[in-house]
Amino acid sequence: LLAFAREQGHSPDLVLHNSAVAAASCGASSGNWALAFTLLRNLQGAVVQPDQVTYTAACTACQRAAAAAQALRVLQVLPRQKIHACAIMHSTVVMACARATFWQEGAALLGRLNRGMGTRQAFLG
Hints:
Layout: H1 2-7, H2 14-26, H3 33-42, H4 52-65, H5 68-81, H6 87-99, H7 103-116, H8 120-124
């Protein structure tokens, strides 16, 4: 769909990019985290920049594929992008850790969230 839009002379907007990343998370029963990350990487240097929805969709692809290391990496990138991770993103990363038997990393993330979130609003972003 992204390629088709470009072929037709259109510049895909953020909604279309987010839809493509989200579609990668729905592919097969295990998601396609590699495709989601390729789509995310293609946004680097583009006029359209990824947002919280884009990164959450990439984390969802990781969760479905049990790609915990990649999901945890997304959380590391967010501060540089000046994007706040919301409750859904954190939950998705914890579930990716659980599926990949990275239970220690998931528990550590939950501990950091418990210590770092003073209010419900801060957690929800």
